Amino acid sequence: MARQVAVEAKGATKIFGTGEEAVHALDNVSVAIRENEFFTLLGPSGCGKTTLLRLIAGFELPSAGDILLAGESVVHLPPYQRPVNTVFQSYALFPHMTVAQNIAFGLEMRGISKAETAARVEEMLALVRLGKLGGRKPSQLSGGQQQRVALARALANHPKLLLLDEPLSALDLKLRKEMQIELKRIQLDTGITFIFVTHDQEEALTMSDRIAVMSHGKILQIGTPTEIYEHPTSRFVADFIGETNLIDVALGARSNGQMGLKLPGGREIAVPLPQGVALGDKGTVAIRPERTSLTRDADRQLAGKIENIVYFGTDTSYFVTLADGKTFHVRVQNREGARMGFDKGEEVGIRFATDAAQLLRD
Ligand code: ATP
Predict the structure, then answer these.
(1) ipTM surpassing 0.90, yes or no?
(2) What is its EC number (predicted)?
(3) I need a surface site. Which of 20, 120, 168, 257 has the fewest CB within 10 A?
């Protein structure tokens, strides 16, 4: 059964300032986020992620367009009347209160009884696995533990929607990885819709049910991590998520939903014709380094000279200069026996399966 839509932005636009100073922070953004979904807004600094989050929370009003929660417009509702909580990068805990008092604060403000509040605090401490630390002050906790308290506090009144604005960016790498797994578990345990903001593509890929990739106030692509990674539709998305080779190609004959692509060096391959786009006679394909390999056989799609070799332990990267002077990145796993002993300066062929070549729309 299709899940209900939890929150929807319809043509959401936000312009800060006026005249020459005007900044189009969000430009006609439409997206529907489903109940129980872990949804991530991903994009570089300044692309409008936080602005979209603030419109959903009610901290900002849209300049145009609408925000709907469970099908109802909420733009006229102040933040505290929306069933939405936010976790910020700075945890914003009250330093003079204990962990338990921090978690209880919002519940008491809402007039929830002492007994119910105590039960919820216990429930939340267990959920974020801080069972015995309810009596400590925030200053007596590690960064990761403080982050858990902030989460517990935001979840204590059982919101329909939790917004998380780069909540893990203050943590060191190891802790961040642990918290990524924890956040995903907490989302699954509670069934609450999470909207997570990050500029870290790996974080987005590992945690999300779906990702919206943003650039310059617009959403460029929405999809599952696999769709976004395997089938980017634009140069920006292909380049922003993971590593990729962007190859200029001449577009050839089209028939039976297939299109011929002429690669640098002259070889031709056929790829599925993208739907609904007008294509000229030139295009770009994106090919992930790990979907390619080196060969000394004549059966090859591209050819070039190995410029550099970088060993990574689990795999090795070869940087190959192609006929058109561009560098192509080939990444192969160092499985036993897989090392072919290619050398720097050697002329080699590059091989990849046709479905590794993703023709971009723009
Ligand atoms: P970051 O990852 O750096 O937080 P972001 O993707 O969240 O970036 P936003 O904070 O949404 O981006 O900002 C989008 C654009 O709007 C930026 O150019 C920013 O400078 C501008 N902007 C945001 N808030 C305001 C404001 N209150 N007044 C003027 N300009 C603003």
Answers:
(1) yes
(2) 7.6.2.11
(3) 20
Q: Which atom of ligand 1 is nearest to the CA of 199?
A: 2
- Distance (angstroms) between ligand 1 centre and the Cα of 325 equals 38
Ligand 1 atom nearest the C-alpha of 53 is 11
pLDDT at 163 over 70: yes
Question: In this predicted structure, what is the pLDDT of residue 272?
Answer: 81
Multiple choice CATH, 5-235, 2.60.40.10, 3.40.50.300, 3.40.1190.10, 3.40.50.450: 3.40.50.300
The DSSP secondary-structure symbol of 171 reads S
Determine phi and psi for 113, rounding to 5 degrees.
-60, 160
Q: Looking up tokens 């602005």, which residue turns up? A: 51
For residue 48, give the ligand 1 atom closest to its CA.
11
Q: Can you give the pLDDT at residue 340? A: 62
Q: From CA 341, how far away is CA 179, in angstroms rounded?
A: 40
Which residue puts its alpha carbon closest to atom 19 of ligand 1? 46
pLDDT band of 118, cuts 50, 70, 90: very high
The protein residue with its alpha carbon nearest to ligand 1, atom 30, reads 16
CATH 3.40.50.300 intervals, the chain: 5-235
